[in-house]
Amino acid sequence: MDLSLHTHKMHLNLGPSHPTMHGTLRVLLTLDGETIVDANPEIGYLHRCFEKESEDHTYTQIFPYTDRLNYLSALMNNVGYAMAVEKLLGLQIPPRCQYIRVIISELSRIMDHLVCIGTNLVDLGALTNFWYFFNVRETMTNWVERLCGARLTNTYVRVGGLAKDLPAGSDKELRSCLKELNKAVKDVTGLLKKNRIFMDRTQNVGVISAEDAINWGFTGPCLRACGVDYDVRKAAPYYDYDRFSWDVPVGVVGDCYDRLFVRFEEMVQSTRIIEQALDKLPDGPIEVANNQVVLPPKHEVYNSIEGLIRHFELIMFGIKVEPGEVYSYTEAANGELGFYIVSDGSGKPYRIKVRPPCFAIYQAFPELIKGQMIADAVAILGTLNVVAGELDR
Amino acid sequence: MELIIAAIKAIVIVALILQLIPVLIWFERKGSAYIQDRRGPNRAQILGIRLGGMIHNLADVVKLFCKQDIIPTKASRIIYVVAPMIAIFVASATVGVVPFAEPLHLGGLTIPMQVADLNIGILYILGIGSLGVYGVMLGGWSSNNSYSLLGTLRASAQMVSYEIAMGLALIGLFLVTGTVRITEIVSQQTGFHWYAFTQPIAFVLFLTSLFAETNRNPFDLAEGESELVAGFHTEYSSMKFALFFMAEYAHIAVGSLIVSLLFFGGWNLPGLDFDWIRVYPEAALSMGLPALAVGAIAFGLFLCSKFRRHKYNDARDYEVLIFGVPHVLIGFLMIGATLLLHGTTLPTWVGPVLVAALQMGVVLAKTLFFCAFFIWVRWTLPRFRYDQLMDLGWKGMIPVALFNIVITSAWLVFVH
Prior knowledge:
The complex is a heterodimer.
Chain A (H helix, E strand, L loop, with lengths): L9 E5 L11 E7 L2 E8 L7 H5 L8 H5 L6 H16 L5 H29 L4 H21 L8 E2 L2 E2 L7 H23 L3 H7 L7 H7 L4 H4 L7 H4 L20 H25 L17 H6 L1 H13 L6 E9 L2 E9 L5 E7 L1 H7 L1 H5 L4 H11 L3 H5 L1
Antiparallel strand pairs in A: 1-2, 2-3, 4-5, 6-7, 7-8
Chain B lengths: L1 H34 L19 H12 L10 H17 L10 E3 L2 E3 L9 H22 L3 H32 L4 H7 L6 H4 L1 H14 L11 H4 L9 H25 L11 H6 L1 H25 L13 H23 L8 H29 L7 H30 L1
Antiparallel strand pairs in B: 1-2
């Protein structure tokens, strides 16, 4: 007699309408009890045709679209895109502009990590830490609002410069933000670092070896958590990153715990960079002196025919870029954010391809969660920090 | 006569537990807000009265009553409807054997301050408490939803395994008390001879398994909102959802009540001599009332000092006065009463009633302390994973509970 119970595998549609999937990700899980046997992710719930839309917009008009890639650190996408166009144009931006771009990049890296860690902890059930981080993020967002008028989708950077200079009193305000950040990081690490439940939930969960991580195309904190010392800011420095003194935090095991604590440490290192950049912030113009790229000042537009024509042409036909192609990459919050631009000599790009860090990282997600439990899948997804805006574009 | 008293007691005590639910929800919201550097609810108002956010509960009740009550077409209708009823019934029936004070002697009449003084006391609580899993299990299973099913699986496994740890922890306590009747256990804990200090292991184990029994963080796997959406009550809406919600808080209230009775001395408070108060209520009142009066007046004046005429420019401006002025008046009334008391003898029933009221106050204060502890833990710790929870239950708590039994028995045999 066959005494074994009849069992069959259960299918569970994790998302898109699920608290952890944020309405944008969907994974079809095959479950054996609580254990995940197979995972089948489907992307595209937040697809907004960024690349196709870009082909029909001037180089300047694309900035608002880049905000919506990784909407948690919009300023950094602006910088990455502007750098690609400037590389194509062969522009050298003035030092003050470079330093401001470093400051806003590092600030948005901090803001991104605050959300990533905060929401991940919510998924693990530790809700309070989320508010400790969001209170700090709020002070930073307030500064960003003073900087460019928008809180989330900033559109602050322009080709060849910035929309405007730093607001008055930025130095003091940023330093007090960083002080608060230090306190929040101390609070949260105090609650978690030696917490048995937290350690059990994250240590040796979602482990990926350095070799596998490189093969999957991991970059950023997720790669560094595996022990690979690769950071675009060190490997291919841009904007004087090599002149600041800072360290690249590296993990050992490559599990969720390491990924989280690499992010904690990166926030501290970003604080160091911002403080040095504020100390050394040079005076001078924030835009290149090239009237083929930058809008003429208002008094020229109103008082001279040349200025008016220049303004009209830049607005209507866009910045003329010589035919060619370029790949430019920066270290965004999640890893290497690359822009590949092909120009046909008109004011609009012929083709733009984004290399979002999440896309490569999310590929490994099904492999990482196979054999784990549902609770682990949630924890792993959070530490990979998959931002659907960037994933689906 | 006895029947009437029993009926009144049954209604009053169940009502008391149900009344604790909105207080606990308010505790949870305000407590979590202050833990998280927020303000918490402070908007809902009736004629300007907000009661520090308490009115939000009223708004919630109205909302939940008005919501559409959805029963999924594929749900098993009868079980689906019965499940939340089981949950709330179990949570409020547990309180039946819980005493709130010593038996009250009035004339020739003895009124136990509980619905039923069973000689199997705690066994009844464990028995009824273990029925609680049916509410969760049937609710999740009848919803016919994958998330609910997973939540149900987790809940039943968790509750069954933690009940064993809970029972074993209590055996250590029973060895010392020699009885399972709650009134006797409480009367053994005079002064600071609380069982939390003489049976610390049993206390910690019981408290931990109570967290698991009530499905609260870090053991809220059955709901596990980030993993299972809402776990076993994913499909529930309107008042059916509210019943599950109320059952959780009623569970916390009853659980805290039991912890404070079994391990924290119940109505015993060092420094309070109830026998003395029973004999000399005049002396006790003339000492207690002025202290209360000073407190009430100070609090009332503090509230009144917060009054700003144009803060909101509506009825809310006067809220502090509405609460502050009566406090001051009551304070002065108390002082007047103290003066009147001087030299008079009160009727004989005052002493016992005063003692019963005091004892209930002490029990409720301890209960609220543990409720606050539940809330504090919830907003501090992350959630366990299912297998880790099982490990903790079977490989951690049950062996420790057994060890505690061995140690306690050895101590009783060889030392005591």
